[in-house]
Amino acid sequence: MKVTLLGAGSWGTAMAAQAARYLQPGDVCLWSRRVEQIEGMQHSGVNTAYLPDVVLPKGLQLEVSFERAIERLSENDLLIIATPMSGLSETVAQVLRLAKHPLNIVWLCKGLEPSTTLLPHQVVEREDQLHSHGIRHSYGALSGPSFAQEVANGMPCALTVASQSNTLCDIVQGAFHHGNMRIYASDDLVGVELGGAIKNVLAIAAGIGDGLDLGLNARAAVLTRGLAEMMRLVKAAGGRPETCMGLTGVGDLILTATGDLSRNRRVGLALAAGKPLPEILGGLGHVAEGVLCASAVGNLAARLGVEMPITAMMGEVLSGKLSPHEAVKKLMGRDPKLEV
Ligand SMILES: NC(=O)C1=CN([C@@H]2O[C@H](COP(=O)(O)OP(=O)(O)OC[C@H]3O[C@@H](n4cnc5c(N)ncnc54)[C@H](OP(=O)(O)O)[C@@H]3O)[C@@H](O)[C@H]2O)C=CC1
Ligand SMILES: O=C(CO)COP(=O)(O)O
Question: Which of 39, 116, 171, 319 is most buried, by the most CB atoms less than 10 A from its CB?
């Protein structure tokens, strides 16, 4: 089987390394939009900008041509879009314009499209209608608790692929379910994608709480009530709330909200320390999806009539309307209610 990954950030590179360790030399291809990055990786065997401590497997093919990266794939192969949410629509559109036969297309990004509040699969469906010319591609999302650094080092990890196509799930398992990586399958795209989007916002909240030294009780409260928000929105959006109890919901929430490798948690810690958001993001060197996603989730929740107070407060803090201290005060000052 051949696999192409589009996007050579930390996650695309880590997943390319995982697949390349177990498939045949040359079967896995990693494409970056920056020629100098690919040349650097070819020269040093390391992705210096995004995963500087990890030596890439020798069999991993590094590609500068978008066309070649797509054209090498047959109908039984796998295309992974490993850009952030902000790159999903343009990348998938470019793929669909080039595709001459059905492809198996999976994305790794976690978020919503800010201008439309669409979930990743809805963005892909929109682009499919515009660019697919009658070719029926298969689509899916791959998500779950997975710091790139650990996966790149071959440490144990469990993920979930969500798709309406069992064949696509089998292909994703064939590509990645090896060694220390387990891939579970689900058909709940809405539940899986919303879990991945919301946990990033909640990780910023947990980082703020920890940065303000609010204590372990506060952290448990944020995670538990945040999970309740996630389940309410998933249900209202047509997903299954029980998906939130799995890897892509509570699993990824625990990881991201408590693990200091998380970029989103680090944004929260830095906001609590009083740093301005542009300075925090400038210093991160990576995407923190929760920053753009907080308002999008809030807008989607408002449209579906779902109450999400923690998410709403994060929207206010990230847009500069409230300080972290003021947000905590507002949350703690809410009226008593039933635990639902
Ligand atoms: N890192 C992790 O541990 C995990 C990340 N994810 C998710 O995966 C997605 C990617 O994250 P991650 O790899 O960490 O992000 P990084 O910030 O590490 O890297 C982003 C990469 O995407 C590239 N990129 C951005 N926009 C485009 C575009 N329009 N076209 C092509 N390439 C583009 C960047 O290229 P350039 O260098 O040229 O800017 C860079 O290579 C995010 O949605 C994240 O939430 C999911 C699970 C784990
Ligand atoms: O999604 C992730 C782990 O599953 C990575 O989280 P961060 O983007 O917060 O680093």
Answer: 171
Distance CA 223, CA 195 (A): 13
- Model-level ipTM above the cut of 0.90: yes
Residue 288 CA, ligand 2 centroid: distance in Å: 8
Report how far residue 307's alpha carbon sits from residue 305's, in angstroms, rounded to the nearest whole number. Answer: 7
- Would you call 2 a catalytic residue per the annotation? no
- CATH fold of 3-187: Rossmann fold (3.40.50)
* pLDDT for the residue numbered 145: 99
Boundaries of CATH 1.10.1040.10 in the chain?
197-333
Does residue 265 have its Cβ closer than 6 Å to ligand 1? no
| Tens digits of residue pLDDT in 47-66 | 999 999 999 999 999 999 99
The two structure tokens encoding residue 87? 């790159």
Q: Rounded to 5 degrees, what angle do the CA atoms 86, 87, 90 make?
A: 120
**What is the per-residue pLDDT for 242?**
98
66 pocket-lining for ligand 1 (C-beta < 6 Å):
no
> Residue 240, annotated ligand binder?
no
Instruction: Say yes or no to pLDDT of 294 above 90.
Output: yes
Q: Is 110 in the pocket of ligand 1 (CB under 6 A)?
A: yes
Angle between helices 309-318 and 324-332 (to 10 degrees): 160
Q: For ligand 2, atom 10, which residue shows the shortest CA distance?
A: 262
* CA distance linking residue 169 with residue 138, whole number of Å: 10
Q: Which numbered atom of ligand 1 lies nearest the CA of 147? A: 3
**Element of type H or E holding 182:** strand 181-186
- Residue 334 near residue 229 (C-beta atoms within 8 A): no
Architecture of domain 197-333: Orthogonal Bundle (1.10)
Q: Which of the following is catalytic: 2, 58, 100, 199?
A: 199
Provide CB contacts within 8 A for 206, sequence distance 6+. 219, 222, 223, 257, 258, 265, 268
Distance, in Å, from the CA atom of 17 to the CA atom of 334, rounded to the nearest integer, reads 47
**What pLDDT was estimated at residue 67?**
98
